[in-house]
């Protein structure tokens, strides 16, 4: 039984990875999760300088998921290269570094610094507002998506995964723009924009007013967008959005994803990734699937 998948020439032992921002850089889950069993660990977003993140409160529970407005708090690329990459190198798993920035130059600086590290793939988070474009997120303008993809690709030594925002009218337009810019793979979806109001305090539950909505409730939207993107471009896709069980993961594979990322589930079940790896194998055994790649995009 073969569970291996390949993304942009990089082979993963199975299609299960962590979603950026939900797993730190692996160390905090090390006691509960055998990182050697994961296809890849996707790190928390890293920027060229440390980011303090948003004011608190910045997490709120909602029906079927959660809202977060962490604001991409991170220690910056220097600490990341010194501390996090050496930690992950100890394990037999692929390292995917999530990169964030406020301007194209920010992204390029981080990508260049990562060029000589053990990072296997780079996931570029283009849902951060672009300061120079008057606060429009890069990921909501196809021209900006294509331009930043092209520029990052010019400087990147590793294959580039563009992480797409679902807060758009047509996900296929964004997928095609990333492909035109030279992306090696796509990951989707990032969080949906949501809001919660505390009726007793008559104020916003999050200091930021809005936050990223993630968890089981977003899965039908994510599956639909992954299916649309997989049928619009020729790039491998990492599907995410509410993956909680092996059944969820298999649904994404059948829709056209080559791999899946597990995010919010890590918070309420730290063993989720391990259970999903086991569950995919059990499903393959049950239905006589010799190679997991048989499942990818099998539903048209």
Would you mind describing this structure in some detail?
By secondary structure, the protein is of the alpha/beta class. The chain has helices at residues 77-89, 104-114, 142-155, 171-180, 219-230, 246-255, 265-268, 272-286; strands at 5-7, 10-12, 16-18, 40-42, 59-62, 65-68, 94-99, 121-125, 160-163, 185-188, 192-195, 197-198, 203-204, 210-214, 237-240, 259-262. It has an 8-stranded parallel beta sheet with strand order 3-16-15-10-9-8-7-4. It has a 4-stranded antiparallel beta sheet with strand order 5-6-14-11, with no helix packed on it. Helix 4 (171-180) links the parallel strand 9 (160-163) and strand 10 (185-188). Helix 2 packs parallel to helix 3, helix 3 runs parallel beside helix 4 and helix 5 runs parallel beside helix 6 (246-255). It is globular, with a radius of gyration of 18 Å. It starts with a strand and ends in a 14-residue tail after the last helix.
- What is the CATH superfamily? Aldolase class I
Distance between the termini: 24 Å
Strand arrangement in the largest pleated sheet = 3-16-15-10-9-8-7-4
Q: What characterizes the major β-sheet?
A: 8 strands, parallel
Strand content: 15-25%
Helix content: 25-40%
